[in-house]
């Protein structure tokens, strides 16, 4: 079931991968995604990774697949390796209204490796190809792959090219490439986000060698200027942690990368636009901090920003915390007539 939220007169935007927010476990929840839509209409949003097992055997399915109409364009990222299960889940995703299904071939977690999910699949390109082929046969929406430039001792040139060629031959024409290797032995998932060096030129060479494919780049991007630079060499950019920890970055996306006005005139306006959604979530039984934890970085670097963050951190989790806590936190930040998306 899908329920509307934050409806206005603007029709949902078509899928455009120029800029997307990366799938991030525990972060890109439906509450975050609705908040993101107060800042950008055009960015492509991704769910957290959802495993095939959760969709096929978890209950209720709403817990894993539920979303609001306002979140579109929206992609579901799947974790799995069994072609039949992935095809079934892709069909379910399409029935639930998702605009794209993305296969995770980049997560370095030990937990998912044990189930042949994530980055370890870069060592099994034919299995990925089988999965892509089965998913494409099951749905009419795009099936895409998010991967790394390699794992462990793989050759970043030869092995990445081989992986892309095999999976592309199965019908995948869109790859979002995290421009770091994943070291499955010796580094933790957290260390894998920072320690392996970024290798943007390798992704640029991939695009140059496969101009027929849509090649997106992910990893370490923190500014819209950096995104614009990358878009001169690749087809799209994906931003992860910066889009979450400094969400006001998203307020500049529509104008800077799509030439269209964004929905937020100011940080306060974005926060107020979310207020009806927060009220609804509270009525459903959610705790205030389930939603407001995603807003803690909204006033980063602004006068009163630390007070806003502290007030929510100390009070939003309390029993009975309601909109008054949210309003009081907003009142700690001086409001300005306008704000830039710098």
UniProtKB/TrEMBL annotation:
Pfam families: Dus. The active site is at residue 107. It comes from the Bacteria. Catalyzes the synthesis of 5,6-dihydrouridine (D), a modified base found in the D-loop of most tRNAs, via the reduction of the C5-C6 double bond in target uridines. Specifically modifies U20 and U20a in tRNAs. FMN binds at residues 23-25, 77, 146, 178, 218-220, 240-241. Its cofactor is FMN. It catalyses: 5,6-dihydrouridine(20a) in tRNA + NAD(+) = uridine(20a) in tRNA + NADH + H(+); 5,6-dihydrouridine(20) in tRNA + NAD(+) = uridine(20) in tRNA + NADH + H(+); 5,6-dihydrouridine(20a) in tRNA + NADP(+) = uridine(20a) in tRNA + NADPH + H(+); 5,6-dihydrouridine(20) in tRNA + NADP(+) = uridine(20) in tRNA + NADPH + H(+). It comes from Halomonas shengliensis. This is tRNA-dihydrouridine(20/20a) synthase. It is an enzyme of class 1 (oxidoreductase). Residues 21-321 form the DUS-like FMN-binding domain. Keywords: Flavoprotein, FMN, NADP, Nucleotide-binding, Oxidoreductase, RNA-binding, tRNA processing, tRNA-binding.
